[in-house]
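Long-time lurker, first post. I've been practising inverse folding by hand and with some scripts of my own, and I keep getting stuck on stretches where the structure tokens seem ambiguous. Below is the full token string for one chain I'm working on. Before anyone asks, I'm not after the true native sequence, just a reasonable design that respects the backbone. If someone could post their per-position residues I'd love to compare against what I wrote down in my notebook.
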């Protein structure tokens, strides 16, 4: 299966989904999966987000936007505590009774959800984490959340995730997930988040060195660690 053949959305854990760019702007996908909160990891902003129907489903307060490229010089680890807190605060497992599936009327797909009875379908509160492909950035975030929630290591969580979806965090994000595990899911020594723990401090030093080498033309930005 190529990356382009991946489904737009996959449930990784009860109520927690990984998706691609299409999943974040398609009302049919969002409603069929009871998505009421979303984490957008990247720089994309589709026009659909500004539609009235869209904001009926996902209010601004339930949409966390995390600017982040799929780059080996991106530090997503520093944002993980807040992202995980957001997911935890919005996530509730879907009820077992799935008999109420929906047929979206044409006007709803255009954004006119004013007359649509949402109470029949949104009894669950599910969270979508998406990036562009639903492979690297979103997988990193979901892995970090599950690691913290379950107190499990990176390799175990990723192994279980890959049974559900073909995910592949880039080399930098894999390294950061290992740091996340080593710092026990909080990278700071202090509440003000000014002093990184030793393992994270060393990682930041290595990251700074890599950026210097890239700027000097001694290292390609996509090369691993």
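-- Answer (accepted) --
I ran through it position by position. Result:
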């Amino acid at each position: 299966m190529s990356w382009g053949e991946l489904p737009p959305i996959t449930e990784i854990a009860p109520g927690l989904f990984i998706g691609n760019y299409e999943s974040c702007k398609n009302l049919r996908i969002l409603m069929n999966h009871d998505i009421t909160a979303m984490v957008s990891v990247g720089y994309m902003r589709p026009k659909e987000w500004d539609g009235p129907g869209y904001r009926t489903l996902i209010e601004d307060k339930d949409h966390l936007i995390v600017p982040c490229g799929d780059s080996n010089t991106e530090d997503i680890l520093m944002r993980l505590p807040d992202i995980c807190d957001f997911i935890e605060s919005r996530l509730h497992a879907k009820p077992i009774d799935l008999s109420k599936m929906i047929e979206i009327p044409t006007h709803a797909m255009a954004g006119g959800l004013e007359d649509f009875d949402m109470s029949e379908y949104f009894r669950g509160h599910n969270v979508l984490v998406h990036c562009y492909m639903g492979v690297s950035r979103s997988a990193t975030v979901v892995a970090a959340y599950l690691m913290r929630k379950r107190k499990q290591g990176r390799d175990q969580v990723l192994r279980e995730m890959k049974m559900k979806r073909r995910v592949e965090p880039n080399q930098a994000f894999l390294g950061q997930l290992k740091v996340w595990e080593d710092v026990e899911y909080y990278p700071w020594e202090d509440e003000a988040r000014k002093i990184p723990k030793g393992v994270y401090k060393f990682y930041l030093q290595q990251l700074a060195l890599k950026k210097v080498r890239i700027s000097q033309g001694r290292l390609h930005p996509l090369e691993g660690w």
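A couple of notes from the structure itself: Confidence is low (pLDDT under 50) at residues 95-104. The domain at 3-170 is CATH 3.90.190.10 (Protein-Tyrosine Phosphatase; Chain A). Happy to go over any region you disagree with.
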